[in-house]
Amino acid sequence: MSADLLTWRDRFERLRANKAFETLVIAIIIVSALLIGAKTYEQSSHIQHWLLALDTAVTVFFLVEILIRMGAERRLRDFFRKGWNVFDFLIVTASLIPLDESEMVLLARLLRIFRVLRLVSMIPELRVLLAALVKSIPRMGYVALLMFIIFYIYAAIGSFLFAEVDNFLWGNIATAMLTLFRIATFEDWTDVMYATQELHAWSWLYYLTFIFLTAFIFLNMMIGIVLDVMQKESAEMALENGEGETAELQALRADVHQMRDQLTRMEGLLQAGEARELDKRPPG
Questions:
Q1: Cβ-proximal residues to 236 (8 Å cutoff; 6+ apart), any chain
Q2: What share of the chain is helix, strand, coil (3-state, %, to 5)?
Q3: Are 252 and 242 in contact (CB under 8 A)?
Q4: 16, 151, 200, 237 - which has most CB atoms within 10 Å?
Q5: Are 182 and 168 in contact (CB under 8 A)?
Q6: What fold characterizes domain 127-240?
């Protein structure tokens, strides 16, 4: 690699790591989001012209920024080894579809909406939150399955008991599950309860037990899963950055292992020296 290429790569690497440059990228992403919102209102042709010019400028900036990040890597394939880099590359590439009157104009507008998601790739804290959410999905799936079983049982019971009260809400198990979802979200659930209490005075027990299971137990279980995964993700991020108690413990363990290896080598040298001294002694 020539000296000129190394110089340019070093410049790109310093620019990529510059906090002011990162702040500028975040600001442009926010401007891009505001442009998307502005296009949902009716504008005059003059304002539309300026919005199109700003959108083109933002697209060019994103293209230059992604090229700088690619040029800062020692090898181009190193850039695509990180998932967030691939995500940014796809978003920026998709933004190159022109906003003209062609058949692709709707697709181009939809793809530009996803440029707002680049905030996640630029802000580490948002990456931790998203990673925690994604990793929580498998564990939350079992909670969701258990919730579905509870919904199904209660819907069947409600359909058998309350169909005569309100066939629209309890006529079959599908509509009963929709009604239970309304109750679980506390959307005028007391109106539903009062309607059934006119015929079944004890029906309050049905609603309260269902709300206790769904709103208080299962919801808190999901929150606990997300918080647990988020704590682990934060610990991993702190370990990568060399910050926090986890990083300090890791450093202490590394130091202890290093000292143990040194003591083992010293012990081996001492034993070898003692063996040589014994060999030098005359027999008898």
A1: none
A2: 85, 0, 15
A3: no
A4: 151
A5: no
A6: Helix Hairpins (1.10.287)
Query: Cα–Cα distance between 199 and 192 in angstroms, integer?
Result: 12
Average pLDDT of the chain? 79
Give me 185's structure tokens: 């979200």
Q: In angstroms, how far is the first alpha carbon of the chain from the final one?
A: 69
Q: Which fold has domain 3-122?
A: Four Helix Bundle (Hemerythrin (Met), subunit A) (1.20.120)
Selection from 220, 226, 224 nearest residue 131 by Cα: 226
The two structure tokens encoding residue 269: 């040298």
pLDDT in the model for residue 275: 63
- Please give the Cα distance from 179 to 189 (Å, whole number): 9
129/139 Cα distance (integer angstroms):
16
Residue 17: its H or E element: helix 3-17
